[in-house]
Prior knowledge:
- The protein has helices at residues 20-28, 52-62, 69-82, 96-101, 112-116, 122-125, 135-138, 152-165, 205-211, 253-266, 275-282, 323-327, 337-340, 388-396, 456-460, and strands at 41-48, 89-94, 143-149, 171-179, 181-182, 188-189, 228-229, 240-251, 346-347, 350-352, 374-381, 420-421, 436-437, 443-453.
- By secondary structure, it is an alpha+beta fold.
- Strands 7, 8, 9, 10, 11 and 14 form a six-stranded antiparallel beta sheet that branches. A four-stranded antiparallel beta sheet has the order 2-3-1-4. A two-stranded antiparallel ribbon has the order 5-6.
- Strand 5 and strand 6 (188-189) form a beta hairpin.
- Helix 10 crosses helix 11.
- The longest helix has 14 residues, at 69-82.
- It starts with 19 loop residues before the first helix and ends with a helix.
- 49% of the residues are buried.
- The structure holds protoporphyrin IX containing FE.
- Protoporphyrin IX containing FE binds next to strand 8, helix 12, strand 11 and helix 14.
Amino acid sequence: MPVNLTNTQPLAWDSANLDADTKAMLDNLQPNILQPHVREHLSVLFLHFGDAADGKRLLKALVPLMKSARKHLEEVRAFRQSQAAGTPYVGVGISKPGYLKLGHATNAFSDNAFKSGMKHRKDTLSDPAVSSWDKHFQEEIHAVVLIGDATEPVVAATRAKVLGLLPASVKVVGEETGLGQRDAQGKGIEHFGYVDGRSQPLFLADQVTEEGKGTNWNPFFPLSHVLEADPLAPKPKQHFGSYLVFRKLEQNVRAFRQAEQDLADHLGLKGDDRKRAGAMLVGRFRNGTPLRLHGKASADTFPVQNDFSYRDDTGAKCPVSAHIRKTNPRDSRDGGLERSLGVMMARRGQTYGTRADHPWDDAPPETRPTGGVGLLFMAFNSSLQNQFEFMQSAWANTPGFPADGTGHDPVIGQGKRTGKVRFPESWGATKLSPSQVQVPQTVTMKGGEYFFMPSLAYLKNP
Ligand code: HEM
């Protein structure tokens, strides 16, 4: 039976009744797509193939260091049951120029953004000029190798193995190093200090059971959001891959923290209510409490909540411009724009850069870094054009989405921030503040590329 990408039930990956095609799909799919793989420490190697033969030799040689999605899911279960340590993550993605260099035509790939490459999508995305990107991203990148684990020595050892496999004509054009950030409670945060990676589309039955189908938000999304038949694999009905968007996003933490303070001042917020300023930019307080549900952050021990929609909030609680509302309008219109348009993607980013201060605390803006830290934004898509690009350009960068006067996404919006915006003066108040200029852009794209993460079946015989 062909893999049902549009199944309305989450995939019970461990079911004894799984059909042969779905089993083969899980045995050949790379990990980290259906379920996040631990990558507290992450090395990202960007490669250039000198010739097709060496490129293919390397891809084949990498397979023994990799594991399947099924093996990963089994490792996750074993860890939860008995704390058994898993194996490191090695993921491989190939860009359009990479496939061409390997001697493959790319017309069988359905995605136009992938077939153009990120450098050629800058007008669609309002990205900065390629000449301003970090040098290695300006080069032609053929492949990416992601090496992740909970500990740094394991990443270092696996990285050394990968480098030891590189044939002479394969060059490392650049490298990024991811390093997880955690708040005082151990929750994963990004550099502005907010809990991240909480709201995700879930594909698997055990994930959906664990989070629970909420009364306001169903975290289940069909596999069609992330999987695409691998057109170059021996059996495209069993062998699937996913498009990876990689973007290095530098965060000016000082400027963002100053913007939070300025907004609190403009709105006349006092005492603890000043924390609502940042929450109105993100849509959650720093500890993940959703502004849609609470006007104050819940206790830090409270689980990070995800069961909410914006159906009954015109912006009095969570402004329509908040980052998480712009990028996921959650059933607020037309039966759920994110569902009817199929936009949600699986975010798998990792923070980069080290700092001496505590990103989660209230130390003043002037003690915060202005650069050198940020997010290695990564997400899996079945269509880069309809998911990542649509979310970034039609939603985050468009001041008129979802309605006139919304403004840019204050966190990731790119393009000139003209037009003024308004915020609720108190939580739940229909009275909005006088119009004010939007917060400045504090996230800068430093380069990136689109890749396809092929099936293991392809990599064994590229
Ligand atoms: C430095 C850049 C970024 C920062 C600091 C950032 C920060 C955050 C934070 C703090 C959350 C809340 C945690 C959660 O709900 O999971 C979040 C959620 C989210 N972000 Fe970002 N983000 C960044 C880049 C992006 C980009 C580039 C996109 C897509 C184009 C994006 C899309 C989303 C989505 C879809 C959610 C979940 C919304 C929901 O389902 O409620 N983010 N982000």
